């Protein structure tokens, strides 16, 4: 996926901190959806780190490309894994003990384990500088 971003500052290792406008599901055309979008959501930005092979400078408007596979993997870990572990632990606990309350308690434990794995994965991504964005063009200096 390609997006437009603004370079905030340069980072070591030929990387840059960028500000990417958060995109809504409707594509930010609030006049077409009857006011369902809030102005605050449309105007908010997400800060990210991008590879900077083109030497973009702070203040530049750039075109960035995200690595879809990595973004989808992270989303699966953050959103799906806790939910999946909740149901696995819940049904396994209920089946083994024949008590619904035990199954629900174990489901909560599974959910917490999923959250812990998501936090760990986030730390690994940050520690290894596994950026999801790369600057592909400098649009405006």
Strand order of the largest sheet: 1-2-3-5-4
SS-derived structural category: alpha+beta
Q: Counting H and I runs of at least 4 residues, what is the number of helices?
A: 3
* Low-confidence parts: none
Mean pLDDT rating: 83
Helix content: 40-55%
Largest sheet: 5 strands, mixed, barrel
Q: What percentage of amino acids are in beta strands? A: 25-35%
Task: Give me the strand/helix succession.
Answer: EEHEEHHE
Q: What's the end-to-end separation, in Å?
A: 22 Å
Q: How would you describe the shape?
A: elongated
> Rg, please?
20 Å
Which tags fit this structure?
alpha+beta; 5 strands; 45% helix; membrane
Structural overview:
The protein has 141 residues and is of the alpha+beta class. A 5-stranded mixed β-barrel has the order 1-2-3-5-4. The chain has 3 helices and 5 strands, in the order ββαββααβ. α2 runs antiparallel to α3. The longest helix is centred in the middle third of the chain and has 30 residues, at 68-97. It has helices at 39-43, 68-97, 100-127, and strands at residues 2-11, 15-21, 45-51, 61-66, 133-140. The relative contact order is 0.21. A hairpin with a 3-residue loop joins β1 (2-11) and β2 (15-21).
SSE layout and pairing:
Elements: E1 2-11, E2 15-21, H1 39-43, E3 45-51, E4 61-66, H2 68-97, H3 100-127, E5 133-140
Parallel strand pairs: 3-5
Antiparallel strand pairs: 1-2, 1-4, 2-3, 4-5
Helix pairs in contact: 2-3
What's the short story on this structure?
The protein has 141 residues and is α+β, with helices and mostly antiparallel strands. The protein has helices spanning 39-43, 68-97, 100-127, and strands at 2-11, 15-21, 45-51, 61-66, 133-140.
